[in-house]
Specification:
The chain is of the alpha+beta class. It has a domain of 93 residues: Cupredoxins -  blue copper proteins (Immunoglobulin-like), CATH 2.60.40. It is built from two helices and nine strands; from the N terminus they run ααβββββββββ. The relative contact order is 0.15. The structure holds copper (II) ion. Copper (II) ion (CU) binds next to loops.
Length: 161
């Protein structure tokens, strides 16, 4: 019996609602335009993580060539050098440690713009240059006429393989 009563109540309510709906002025104004504003899409701005190309620490290829260092100890006297033939490889850093065993002398090579000081006994002098030219070059003593007197030698620079 209770079920029937419930059903009756429900039907009454529905009918009442229906009547109310029909009788009520169909005022569409009541309808609030459901401008349900779609939530502003939180723009997840794609953070373009700029994959900046890693700065390749480029090792200058020129420096990979280990510049060889060559040292010569040379003595000068009237009128010659104790070594009149030197040989190095292109690109070598050449150091000449020069000393005199008697009078004033020096060690000079024009092509590499290199020269020691004029030295006397007991006061050596050095000069360093890069053998950046290939070939045979004469070095000499620039004091007075020592060069003409035969105080010369030959530096040979061999091309790097
Ligand atoms: Cu000399």
């Amino acid at each position: 019996m209770n079920n029937n009563i419930l059903w009756i109540i429900v039907i009454i309510i529905l009918v009442a609602a229906g009547l109310w709906f029909l009788t009520s002025p169909s005022d569409t104004t009541t309808r609030v335009p459901s401008t349900t504003q779609t939530p502003t899409t939180t723009q997840t701005a794609p953070v373009t993580t700029q994959t900046t190309a890693p700065t390749t620490t480029r090792t200058p290829s020129s420096q990979t060539q280990t510049s060889n260092k060559v040292v010569f100890n040379i003595k000068g006297s009237n009128y010659s050098f104790d070594q009149d033939e030197l040989s190095v490889t292109e690109g070598d850093t050449v150091t000449i440690n020069f000393e005199s065993t008697d009078n004033a002398h020096d060690w000079t090579i024009d092509e590499f713009n290199a020269s020691t000081k004029q030295v006397n006994v007991g006061v050596p002098s050095s000069v360093t240059f890069v053998a950046d030219k290939v070939g045979e070059f004469e070095y000499y003593c620039s004091v007075d006429n020592h060069r003409a007197m035969g105080m010369v030698g030959t530096l040979t620079v061999v091309a790097k393989r």
